[in-house]
């Protein structure tokens, strides 16, 4: 028997599964999560408050979801969020209630700051806790979300074979000293841990936002490399990240960009990212 559920999962299918199980059994769900240097905490299905589906009725596209295995997390942050999660469980179990039945607590470790935002109320049309629920039993949540219920690193396949190269191929390019741009799309905190020489860092999030400062830096680097190319040739762009997932997304973003900075330029992803480089090319390269 149980009275309270604490969700510490790191994947979307499990979150929907645990939420629905709690709603169907009328149990409060204390949910905490952490990614990189940020954490979140809330309590679902408590005293008429919203459930997880009230806030997220439709799962996000699998390629847009980042978990701790993909994006990393500062180890202290899960500890902080776990302690807060345990505190809310104890408060509910002892009859003191919780402050987060319709509030989301957000923790920013970078600035050591907490803030709380009010969540939308329980939704009458919610598929599981609404007035006429369509979800009355647990189902296939991997199929519903289009992704696996695992916390292990995902391996996306967003590009065709000719849009990607192996780390061995990139090693040959380096050995031949062929002019090119290596674009590292990891967050700066990861780049500070380790990076390949002469790479240009533009985090995927900023690339997706088309930040003018980053686009200008990209253009200037391309222009400088063009001076090293014979004739009208343009330098190719190779994109790298930790595992080869975000780099594929970045290739898609770059191919959608318009303007002379990409006219005639080949953009390719480096399969497996820096961890493949460390495993197959340079065993001394830091792994994290």
From TrEMBL:
<dbReference type="Pfam" id="PF00899">
    <property type="entry name" value="ThiF"/>
</dbReference>
<keyword id="KW-0501">Molybdenum cofactor biosynthesis</keyword>
<keyword id="KW-0862">Zinc</keyword>
<dbReference type="InterPro" id="IPR000594">
    <property type="entry name" value="ThiF_NAD_FAD-bd"/>
</dbReference>
<dbReference type="InterPro" id="IPR001763">
    <property type="entry name" value="Rhodanese-like_dom"/>
</dbReference>
<keyword id="KW-0547">Nucleotide-binding</keyword>
<dbReference type="GO" id="GO:0046872">
    <property type="term" value="F:metal ion binding"/>
</dbReference>
<keyword id="KW-0479">Metal-binding</keyword>
<dbReference type="InterPro" id="IPR045886">
    <property type="entry name" value="ThiF/MoeB/HesA"/>
</dbReference>
<dbReference type="GO" id="GO:0016779">
    <property type="term" value="F:nucleotidyltransferase activity"/>
</dbReference>
<dbReference type="GO" id="GO:0005829">
    <property type="term" value="C:cytosol"/>
</dbReference>
<protein>
    <submittedName>
        <fullName>Adenylyltransferase and sulfurtransferase MOCS3</fullName>
    </submittedName>
</protein>
<keyword id="KW-0067">ATP-binding</keyword>
<dbReference type="GO" id="GO:0006777">
    <property type="term" value="P:Mo-molybdopterin cofactor biosynthetic process"/>
</dbReference>
<keyword id="KW-0548">Nucleotidyltransferase</keyword>
<dbReference type="GO" id="GO:0032447">
    <property type="term" value="P:protein urmylation"/>
</dbReference>
<dbReference type="Pfam" id="PF00581">
    <property type="entry name" value="Rhodanese"/>
</dbReference>
<dbReference type="GO" id="GO:0002143">
    <property type="term" value="P:tRNA wobble position uridine thiolation"/>
</dbReference>
<dbReference type="GO" id="GO:0042292">
    <property type="term" value="F:URM1 activating enzyme activity"/>
</dbReference>
<dbReference type="GO" id="GO:0004792">
    <property type="term" value="F:thiosulfate-cyanide sulfurtransferase activity"/>
</dbReference>
<keyword id="KW-0808">Transferase</keyword>
<dbReference type="GO" id="GO:0005524">
    <property type="term" value="F:ATP binding"/>
</dbReference>
<keyword id="KW-0511">Multifunctional enzyme</keyword>
<keyword id="KW-0819">tRNA processing</keyword>
<feature type="domain" description="Rhodanese">
    <location>
        <begin position="176"/>
        <end position="286"/>
    </location>
</feature>
<keyword id="KW-0963">Cytoplasm</keyword>
């Amino acid at each position: 028997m149980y009275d309270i559920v604490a969700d510490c999962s790191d994947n979307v299918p499990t979150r929907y599964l645990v939420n629905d199980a709690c709603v169907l059994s009328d149990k409060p769900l204390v949910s905490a999560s952490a990614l990189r240097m940020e954490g979140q905490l809330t309590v679902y299905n408590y005293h008429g408050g919203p459930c997880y589906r009230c806030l997220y009725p439709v799962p996000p596209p699998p390629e847009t979801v980042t978990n701790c295995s993909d994006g990393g997390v500062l180890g202290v942050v899960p500890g902080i969020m776990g302690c807060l999660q345990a505190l809310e469980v104890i408060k509910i179990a002892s009859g003191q209630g919780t402050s987060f039945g319709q509030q989301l607590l957000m923790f920013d470790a970078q600035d050591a700051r907490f803030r709380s935002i009010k969540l939308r109320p329980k939704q009458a049309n919610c598929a599981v806790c609404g007035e006429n629920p369509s979800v009355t039993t647990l189902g296939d949540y991997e199929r519903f979300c289009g992704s696996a219920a695992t916390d292990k690193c995902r391996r996306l396949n967003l590009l065709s074979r000719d849009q990607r190269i192996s780390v061995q191929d990139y090693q040959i390019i380096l050995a031949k000293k062929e002019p090119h741009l290596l674009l590292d799309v990891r967050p700066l905190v990861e780049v500070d841990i380790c990076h390949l020489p002469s790479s240009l860092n533009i985090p995927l999030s900023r690339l997706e936002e088309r930040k003018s400062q980053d686009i200008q830096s990209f253009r200037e680097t391309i222009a400088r490399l063009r001076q090293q190319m014979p004739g009208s040739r343009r330098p190719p762009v190779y994109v790298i990240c930790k595992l080869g997932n975000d780099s594929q997304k970045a290739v898609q973003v770059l191919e959608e960009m318009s303007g002379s900075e990409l006219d005639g330029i080949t953009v390719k992803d480096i399969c497996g990212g820096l961890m493949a480089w460390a495993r197959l090319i340079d065993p001394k390269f830091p792994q994290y």
